[in-house]
Design brief:
The protein is an alpha+beta fold. It has 6 helices and 9 strands.
Length: about 210
């Protein structure tokens, strides 16, 4: 039995407030997808930036902090004065390939032993949101997105772990530590795991969602 099914009525009205309020961490798979959406005048670094542990709460996910010469940093989507750099008005410019955590927002999904949705709660209750409750989202889509997110995050954690071990070894040997551009370059070159059907999102499957 799924708990929290009332949250399946969530209907995004494209107010864009979540894109202005939240910082979005990205994985290697996210970077790979975003790179495909770049224009000829852009680089992926135009869309990314690094946060220190003091700038973001990642208590439950410390393994995604990357060791750089300036310290431990978290890779996120860049923000400008108006919010996410990919925001155009209140709409995402790269909606089909937006990061996986954006695709799952605002749902916090817990899967059961058989892979279906066991429990749903809402993250948007902690930030301004103009959503309505007349939508209809399919649990099977949420479950699939959550499985993809898990797989991609697990792969990214391994990529970061390998990088951090190499950085520790370089430091011990007195060698130069590699920097942020070199880490992002490694991601862009495709040394990451990307799931199939990567552009479907829960809000895409809602019959009334405007996300």
């Amino acid at each position: 039995m799924t708990h929290g099914t009332r949250h399946l009525r969530f209907n995004c009205t494209a107010c864009g407030k979540c894109c202005r309020e939240f910082r979005v961490p990205v994985t290697g798979a996210d970077v790979t997808r975003l790179t495909a959406a770049l224009s000829s005048s852009e680089t992926i670094s135009d869309w990314l930036e690094w946060l220190s542990p003091e700038q973001v709460d990642m208590t439950g996910e410390p393994e995604t902090f990357v060791n750089l010469p300036e310290g431990r940093r978290l890779l996120v989507l860049r923000h400008n004065d108006g919010g996410c750099v990919l925001l155009d008005g209140s709409l995402c410019q790269v909606h089909p390939v937006r990061p996986r955590s954006c695709q799952l927002y605002p749902w916090d999904v817990t899967l059961g032993r058989r892979g279906g949705v066991k429990r749903l709660s809402m993250l948007h209750e902690y930030a301004p949101c103009e959503a309505t409750s007349d939508g209809r989202v399919l649990p099977v889509v949420l479950a699939e997105l959550k499985r993809w997110e898990r797989a991609e995050l697990a792969n990214y954690v391994q990529v970061v772990s390998d990088w951090n071990r190499a950085q520790t070894r370089r430091k011990r040997l007195g060698k130069r530590l590699q920097g942020a551009s070199e880490f992002v370059g490694q991601l862009v070159r495709g040394r990451v795991f990307v799931t199939e059907a990567a552009t479907t999102s829960a809000s895409d499957a809602s019959t009334t969602s405007a996300c």
